Amino acid sequence: MGIYIEDAPSDFYGELLAAAQRAGADVMGAYATLAAVFRRAVDQRLMHSTIAFAGMFAKVDYLVKECGVEPPLAYRINATRIRLRHLQEQDGGSLPRLFPYDLKHVCLFVSRVYGGAAIPPGLAAMLPASDLSADGGEVLGECVRVVAESCEGTVVTATGEHGGSLRVDCSGPWAPLCGLISPGSQLNLVRPREVGGLVVPELVVFEPDYLVDISAVAACFESYGATPYTYLINKLKPSPLSSNILLGNFAGQLLDEAVHGLDCTYADSAARFFRNNALALAACDGIDGGFHSEARSQLDNIRRAVGSVLPAEVSDYCPAEAMLEPSFFCETLGLQGRMDFLQMDGARPGRCILIEQKSGKGAFPPGPDPDTPRHQERHYVQLLLYMALLRYGHGRPNADIRAFLLYSHYRNSLLKVGPAPELLCRALMLRNQVVWCELWYARGGISVLGRLTPDNFNVGGQSGRLWEQFTRPQIERLLLPVRRATPLERAYYFRLMTFLEREHLLSKIGNKTKENSGFAAKWHDTLEEKLQAGNIFYRLSIDSLVPEAEGGSGIGRVRLRFAADTDAEGANFRPGDIVILYSYQNGREPDARRAVVMRATVVAISTAGIELSLRNPQTDSRVFSRPPGYAWAVEHDLFESSFSSLYRAMHSFLSAPARRRDLLLSQRRPRVDGSVALAGDYGAFNGLVLHAMQALDFFIVIGPPGTGKTSFAMLNILSEELLHPDTAVLVMAYTNRAVDEICSKLSDCGIDFVRLGSALACAEPYRPYLLSQKVACCKSVGQVRQAIASARVVCATTSAVNSNPALLQLKRFSLAIIDEASQILEPHVVGILGATSGGVESIGRFVLIGDHKQLPAVVQQTPDESAVADPLLRAIGLTDCRDSLFERLLRAHRSDPAVVYMLTRQGRMHHDIASFPSRAFYSGLLCEVPLEHQQRPLPPPAGCADEVGRLVGGHRVSFVSVHPDASDGSDKVNTAEARVIARVVASVRLACGDGFDPAVSVGVIVPYRNQIAAVRDALVRAGVSEAHQIGIDTVERYQGSQRDVIVYGFTVRKRYQLNFLTSNVFFEDGKPIDRKLNVAMTRAREHLVMVGCAGLLACNEVFAALIDAVRHDGGYLEAR
């Protein structure tokens, strides 16, 4: 890793002094600086802490206590934190009066938490001698957030978010919390009241920023009792694949169609379900006449319930106003959920109808009427939590919520349920225990799996036939792989599971390596912070509603218009991203917690607006109707099912054949058969293909930039494999973009294939190859199985394969090729490589193609958190969980040419551009093919009037040094650089003339989304007519792309930003390898222009060497 560069207290004080000096003219700008310095001071101080914090309240509370800040000052610092968080809601007229005090509090905070660093006299002179009066009283309301300090008996002493100490009564159903709470734990006190000096809450929620899915909490209520360990083993169970599960999914579709009023036959519905679930249906036994008979019966029951019973029994029922599968995020209760059916504000405002469908049977034993079910406790719990979510999160009294369980197996399917306060408290207490366990697992507690027995789950003391013959053996089978694993296998499993648990935790509450991260940023970040990070579109209005595909009557897509002054350039959204859509009242901050949320996928983004595809189509346009004064917002979603598939994959690895486990854990050497000969001829790549075919276990291909690792390595190895009968190849990559590239190569060569995944994640030309399209004409499950069996090439992302384990149950592949392997973490692939089909390995052998010196996988943990200390694991080369399997196997076998091959002939960069990356990152091994453009001499000088244009025209590699403007309001914007970049692009545009193609001729790489908008604006101002067609993006988005001319703008203005710029550095043989710089430089074919502040960049040794090299070759310029 690179050397972490810290800001000194003097750096903070310098920025605060500058803010104070301009506060009179621009108080909002001064406050923005104050907020930025405060956040940086907090985050930097906690950078090396092993504690995960959710939100600034928890971080600041920890620091003031850890550093011994006296309570009055701590209170005032916290008051400033609150003011900075809600700056947009403050009375603007009061800010000039408050600023000196907030400045003082931040200065004192920096001084106290940074070892008493003295405030400079010039700054100290500007601070008021007095303090604002402190109220200190705690205002009790609907929900109060506190941080626990200590616990005695059932009384918790805590600090309120608005300051002051509270004594909280946690007796009764909340008594178990006292064994979970530790100093620093955050609690939500729901509807608290003060009784005899104690705060008595109605509900207590532990670590509320960790949202738990309601259905997962309800699933813990088993016949043997409710325990958080059930939540754990449910994450490890193989994906449920049975006719009953598929029937439940089908019944859900039938309910949606009935509510939509869709006029279709059972055969139409079955065909639609068949296309969308072909893989699971093909892998499942029991899809026969009985399945269809039960499904037809459930369809009749559903139609009766929504078509006759509800209209007759519930006067407000109106399906046109109902939402299907709406989502809710309730930080108050620490819960999230997706309801099957919700009608809010129908004919009687304030009333709502809630329906949860269940396709299985009711409670056992059944009641006296076989056509009428009794509810199962877990189903009741699920509905109770949904009701609580509406009550406590949206202010809906229980009296206004009519809740039904719809047991579609029964003729009298609707079951009305009411509140059950005691059961609700039990469910929320279980949710609290689940969260405590999840935090524990992320600290290594996952090893408890090695000690659990079925008796740990049987908290209800069950002893009957169900427990002894079914439940106990089922739990034992799930835990057995952990118990029988070798010490090395257990160490591997526990360490990577801990890594996954922590990644999951940080995806919820945020991490230290990236600002504005974690799902909880939805409510912790201000609107301004979200805008700066590009994490929100707001002030949207609906342009049009588009019907769903396949002739459905529902609304499947939503097109939204941007407000007139919205600039989409800096937004961190791309087609294919999963997002949430919700409405809010103008004049208030958009807040997903207070809204009914629709989940969607981005289809397209233009300068005018954004188009979304709804995950669950809606019935009627009235669902989108809002009163005047409302607007819409879009934010990023969190796809938690991706973590679920990884937990299952890691657990399945323990059941992989011993030979495969030993191979992946370096307990045996990979086998090689030197007698294998080639059947085809691949020219200069014969050696590569021959070695790949002779490797009987695995083969590693290192593909530096421009060496054709997909075009030649992947394609030639695959082509040779297909020359042999009875072979099949599974080709995978991490990103859909890379899979599209693979599909393009296969298509160009006339190789047929099947693509796994969704249409939205697949480029248009390759959608006919999707499995759903390939099986559209199949009339039976048998025909689907035959179609899958006959496919010789299947393409997919690793995520799609992990999410569809049925593929590897149905089909055996002689070879798997994993492209982008250096970007894929071990948990993403070991389950796939360990899968079995009919007791035999599903994958015969595998080829890993990648380049560990380009950008790696995105990891949220710091290097300290992901480091591996266990000597057993370090002995097999597993030293850091952020490393890919590709890297670990490469380190173990890098000197073995029988299983490792490095491509060295690159056909992208001109020799002068490749020179520095080859020398600095690849030991000088890269050489040109050569192609014509790689040897082409520079044309004669064109007499450009602009010195920047002359520099670019006269050198293949150049560096323009620019000093940032002091007037820029954000550290992530550098307008001086943007102007120089525009001059470079304008000169390229002029030199290309009619041959200019914005998709080929030039591209701009910058590190921050905010800078993208600044560069685009500069291009417009410079008169570049194609300003909106030129690709301006981050280096992460540019990986895999190339342009004739690349302009790399470093953007950074301050030393601390070098940490972000060099966040992907590792050392090889003592030399720093800057992966981000490598990728940025090697996108260029004919010219590379770098723009930045040379003096600042020279603080880093690699940048200093690069600038010196450019200066030595005469390509350096100080911009004027």
From TrEMBL:
**InterPro entries recorded for this chain?**
DNA2/NAM7-like, DNA2/NAM7-like_C, DNA2/NAM7_AAA_11, P-loop_NTPase, SF1_C_Upf1
Look up and give the organism this protein is from. Marseilla massiliensis
Q: What CDD domains does this protein map onto? A: SF1_C_Upf1
Chain ranges of the DNA2/NAM7 helicase helicase domain: 690-759, 785-860
Xref: Pfam families? AAA_11, AAA_12
What molecular function terms (GO) are annotated for this protein?
helicase activity
Protein name, as recorded? AAA family ATPase
Q: Where is the DNA2/NAM7 helicase-like C-terminal domain?
A: 883-1093
Q: Which domain of life is it from?
A: Bacteria
